[in-house]
User: Which sequence fits this backbone?
């Protein structure tokens, strides 16, 4: 886990307390509030929060998953999350769409969670809300009522939208930020905006990237020259920047005509047909191939064969595919002020571009193509440091130290 007060040094392990000064060890229990965890109400979900929790066996976990429905009769509570996992309680709560009356919805959710906790024998030490502007509200009220410390993850894609749409909630979010003992930035790029809005003290701010499973990510002995790949959900292709990537790639072909681009990802059949029509209209059929969905293991097996990864997203919290590409020895073209920006500083093979500029994206692609061999060599040479930068172990150790410090602080 990176402390924002200093530049990260991934080669240095934090000093462990001596046996004489170390406090007695006790397993902590963390109550997680998250809308992004696989459960009976939303089986297809991002695995970022699950990966984070699974990477921390040193603590116990109670996981409350939250999914909204606009139909009151569909609201329900499912112990076990539909899979029999005793740690999980899935709540499908009723609420208005588009965030209307969001604070009221989260207040009622907090009361519901409090009532559910009364029926369980488990106690917990700290509340972790995995989005500041949604679950953070429920966590805030629970923290006050139950007198438990609160920590929040900050995910730029969501937080930026909510704060822009709900300026009248600023006073409430300021209370949430002030109540938090720690703020964990999954989106390093969003820290300046949150700092400007609420001015949290630096001591409680940390960088905590989404975790990437290292199993199956290996560079290939050789890569295909000038072969680029992009991995995205086609149902949100504009937010992922595909509408600008295609013309940018066409422009880049004027300089490097033998380049190819594979588009990998899921989407409904109608959307995939639409993407293919965009490729055909741009006369890119000979250079751009719509691969469609791949199993994650198959994607990781293929990834190291490419010479470049490009995804000019316009609003993305983190983007684990970028990190998977780097660990597979593949240089990346990424967006400034979005996604992994702030986590890949100092990596020669990570080229930032303006995601709203076709010319900038095109220049980034051409730049990677021109330097693909040296960038790949740099990634292979520095792979151990990259693994240390993004592997869960050090981040989880720092997180658990934070939790112990917070729980020993009685000034709530």
Assistant:
């Amino acid at each position: 886990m990176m402390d924002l007060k200093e530049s990260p040094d991934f080669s240095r392990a934090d000093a462990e307390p001596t046996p004489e000064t170390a406090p007695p060890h006790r397993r902590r229990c963390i109550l997680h509030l998250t809308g992004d965890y696989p459960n009976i109400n939303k089986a297809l979900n991002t695995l970022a929060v699950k990966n984070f929790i699974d990477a921390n066996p040193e603590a116990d976990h109670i996981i409350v998953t939250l999914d909204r429905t606009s139909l009151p009769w569909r609201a329900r509570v499912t112990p076990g999350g539909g899979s029999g996992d005793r740690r999980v309680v899935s709540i499908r709560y009723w609420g208005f769409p588009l965030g209307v009356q969001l604070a009221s919805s989260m207040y009622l959710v907090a009361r519901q969670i409090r009532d559910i906790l009364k029926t369980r024998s488990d106690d917990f030490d700290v509340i972790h809300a995995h989005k500041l502007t949604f679950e953070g509200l429920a966590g805030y009220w629970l923290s006050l009522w139950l007198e438990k410390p609160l920590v929040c993850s900050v995910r730029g894609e969501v937080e930026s939208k909510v704060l822009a749409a709900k300026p009248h909630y600023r006073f409430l979010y300021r209370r949430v930020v002030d109540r938090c003992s720690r703020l964990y930035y999954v989106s390093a790029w969003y820290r300046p905006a949150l700092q400007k809005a609420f001015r949290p003290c630096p001591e409680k701010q940390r960088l905590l990237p989404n975790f990437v499973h290292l199993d199956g990510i290996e560079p290939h002995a050789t890569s295909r020259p000038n072969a680029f790949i992009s991995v995205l959900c086609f149902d949100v292709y504009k937010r992922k920047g595909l509408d600008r990537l295609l013309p940018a790639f066409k422009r880049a072909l004027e300089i490097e005509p033998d380049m190819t681009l594979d588009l990998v990802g899921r989407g409904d059949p109608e959307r995939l047909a639409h993407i293919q029509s965009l490729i055909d209209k741009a006369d890119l059929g000979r250079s751009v191939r719509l691969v469609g969905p791949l199993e994650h293991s198959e994607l990781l097996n293929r990834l190291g064969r490419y010479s470049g990864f490009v995804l000019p997203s316009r609003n993305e919290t983190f983007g684990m595919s970028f990190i998977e590409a780097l660990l597979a020895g593949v240089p990346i073209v990424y967006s400034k002020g979005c996604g992994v920006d702030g986590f890949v500083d100092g990596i020669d093979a990570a080229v930032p571009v303006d995601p709203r500029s076709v010319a900038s994206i095109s220049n980034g692609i051409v730049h990677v193509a021109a330097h693909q061999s040296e960038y790949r060599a740099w990634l292979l040479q520095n792979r151990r440091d990259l693994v240390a930068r993004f592997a869960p172990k050090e981040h989880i150790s720092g997180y658990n130290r934070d939790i112990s410090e917070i729980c020993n602080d009685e000034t709530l």
User: Anything to note?
Assistant: DSSP finds 14 helices and 15 strands in the chain.
